[in-house]
Design a protein that fits this description.
The protein is α/β, with parallel strands linked by helices. It contains 20 helices and 14 strands. Strand 1, helix 3 and strand 2 form a beta-alpha-beta unit. The N terminus is likely disordered.
Length: 437
């Protein structure tokens, strides 16, 4: 089994099995796994599982911790390293099976539907109705947070995934210009390569390779074609000539990625731009927190431009927290406080300033946000009006974990193949997606 398929399977294996095993565990264990009573746990506390472990992400997590501690809610940090969240999901499944889930976990996209189907998630409608989430949240976000019409998660932010980050000094040194199309990107990358500058920093995780792939796909297919392929899962679009061209352009990227960067986390790849070791990075705007933590101002010392060929388009990733069922009143109250806190204007502003994202509430003052965030906010609103927003494949927003694993498998196999065949890859993609539906 190859690495990319294993990563996908580890993420999705199989939530149905989790349910069966959890049921057996609950039957066998009985009262032994019940939550401690209030007398043993006098203070409210939330245990929060997440994978925000890079420098900028840690600062954002500390905003949430501080906001809760100000309300006398204890914070039990349950951080699992790994930018794609695969390791965190493995640990979460183990905890859920044992009957000892955390208070809250960083879940998003179709994972919310799968966990909701298994009955692990608590209903947040009371908090949502009190705060008016249906009125506060854009419909594309509120729909993701619901299972069978009921809120089971609270959104934290909106990330734009289709960004290209650029070290302008290296571009100038090579005599290259900021690209605005795939062809101008390849022209700039070639000049950088000839100047002995690494054109693109890219880490080793499969999700990083798929992040690059989805930006290429959006540039080639446009929003409508992208949605037909990766949301509607149209077999003709998945195997057709436009998808062949996606793989063709994706293959061209390989010659501009230094193999030494392939053992890196995404944050290490971001650091290469700051340190002048690479000129460009395809990555979501969570990279801004890393640039800021390393002393470089996003939008100024590190430029942000839409991924080449995707100007005016928006690939979204929504971070969110789901809350797991607990029986004691103190735990439930702490969960409700956390959910309510996340959607307050003050928290939305402070957290997103630290994280590099934009608020999910449309009424938050963006004064003080950098030019990249302001551009992201404008692009999100425009694409929402035009109904051209597209969900990220790499971040699990476009499809189920099973389909995502199939896409990861084909894309990463192709990217690492010495005899890559774009036409064959497109046919394999259609077949793999069909078998995973």
């Amino acid at each position: 089994m190859n690495k990319s398929f294993s990563a996908g399977c580890n993420r999705s294996l199989s939530l149905a099995a989790v349910f069966i095993t959890a049921s057996i565990s609950a039957f066998m264990s009985g009262p032994a796994i019940s939550a401690p009573d209030a007398a043993q746990q006098p203070e409210q506390e939330v245990e929060v599982l997440h994978w925000w472990t890079a420098k900028g992400e840690i600062k954002a997590a500390e905003v949430l911790q501080g906001s809760l501690e100000q309300q006398h809610i204890g914070w039990k940090n349950f951080a699992i390293a790994g930018g794609g969240g695969e390791s965190a999901m493995t640990v979460l499944k183990s905890r859920a099976v044992s009957g000892n889930p955390p208070s809250a976990a960083q879940l998003k996209g179709y994972d919310l539907q799968e966990w909701g189907m298994l009955g692990f998630l608590t209903n947040l409608d009371a908090v949502a109705n009190t705060q008016g989430w249906d009125q506060l949240l854009p419909p594309v976000i509120s729909q993701i947070m619901k299972y069978q019409g009921h809120y089971v998660a609270v959104p934290v932010n909106i990330h734009r995934v289709n960004w290209l980050w650029i070290n302008p000094e290296l571009l100038e040194k090579a005599g290259a210009t900021v690209p605005d199309s795939l062809e101008s990107f390849f022209a700039a990358a070639e000049k950088l390569k000839q100047a002995n500058i690494v054109p693109v920093a890219l880490g080793s995780d499969p999700w990083q390779e798929v992040t690059l792939f989805e930006s290429v796909a959006l540039a080639v297919l446009g929003p409508q074609g992208y949605r037909r392929a990766f949301v509607d899962l149209d077999p003709d679009m998945l195997s057709g000539e436009p998808m062949v061209d996606v793989f063709r352009q994706f293959e061209r990227m390989r010659q501009y990625i230094d193999v030494k960067t392939k053992a890196l986390e995404w944050s290490d790849a971001s650091a290469m731009l700051v340190e002048g070791k690479a000129a460009m990075q395809f990555m979501g705007d969570w990279a801004k927190g890393e640039f800021s933590a390393l002393g470089k101002a996003p939008g100024q010392e590190i430029l942000c431009v839409p991924a080449p060929g995707t100007q005016g388009f928006f690939t979204y990733n929504i971070d969110s927290f789901a809350f797991f069922k607990h029986s004691d009143d103190l735990s439930i109250q702490a969960q409700e406080t956390m959910a309510q806190t996340i959607l307050t204007p003050a928290f939305q502003r402070e957290f997103n300033l630290a994280k590099g994202s934009i608020p999910v509430r449309t009424d938050v003052d963006l004064t003080g946000f950098d030019t990249c965030s302001l551009a992201s906010s404008t692009a999100f609103q425009l694409n929402q009006q035009n109904k051209t927003l597209v969900p990220s494949i790499s971040q699990g927003l476009a499809s189920t974990s099973y389909v995502q694993a199939a896409i990861f498998d084909v894309v990463t196999d192709f990217f690492h193949s010495k005899q890559a065949d774009p036409e064959k890859a497109a046919n394999q993609l259609a077949r793999a997606v069909k078998s995973a539906r």
